[in-house]
Design brief:
With 187 residues, the chain is an alpha/beta fold. The protein is 30% helix and 27% strand.
């Protein structure tokens, strides 16, 4: 997909801070440090649009990015980078605020069309299984993406993706924000 323009819109913690407008939104969800911000940057062809860190828990707010794509219809949409769940180098109080903030967004945002669930190809966890089930119950679209496939030897990548598909019970796309492998399939 050819991207014409991307821009950061806002960061938010509650619905009153969410951007107005009716553009369709796609949320990027997953554990802390799974590569949500890195994948978002790679898909949009920008290095530092979404803040990336090796420290788990760096994304602490819902971050909204407007995207204009070159296609037949001149598509415009919004990507939303969500805080990760699981281990994060933040206080317990901050982590406890994330759950209601994220769930409130996912449950109550009329313009939300789907969720891109990211999971590290080297590990799938019960949280991902629960999120797949929950997203389905909300009637949202889901794309499951196995990140960091470049961290596995080529001979183990297919099996890693198959293992995740068995665990999650949905198709999984393998990709690497680092090498660009699988980006077309994610689009």
């Amino acid at each position: 997909m050819k991207i014409l323009n991307t821009e950061f819109i806002t960061s938010a913690t509650e619905p009153s801070q969410f951007p107005a407008g009716g553009l369709p939104e796609i949320a990027f969800a997953g554990r802390s440090n799974v590569g949500k911000s890195s994948l978002l940057n790679a898909l949009l062809g920008r290095k530092n649009l979404a803040r990336v860190s090796r420290t788990p828990g760096r994304t602490r707010l819902l971050n909204f990015f407007r995207v204009a794509a070159a296609d037949k219809k001149g598509a415009e949409f919004v990507f939303v980078d969500l805080p990760g769940y699981g281990y994060a180098k933040v206080s317990k109080a901050v982590q406890e605020q994330w759950g209601p903030m994220i769930e409130g967004y996912l449950r109550g945002r009329p313009s939300l069309r789907g969720v891109v669930l990211l999971t590290d190809v080297r590990r799938g966890e019960q949280e991902e299984v629960n999120l797949v089930r929950w997203v389905g119950e909300q009637g949202l679209g889901l794309v499951a993406v196995a990140t960091k496939i470049d961290k596995l030897p080529r001979g183990q990548r297919v099996q890693g993706i198959r293992d995740l598909e068995t665990l999650l019970a949905v198709p999984v796309i393998g990709c690497s924000a680092e090498t660009g492998e699988g980006m077309d399939a994610v689009w």
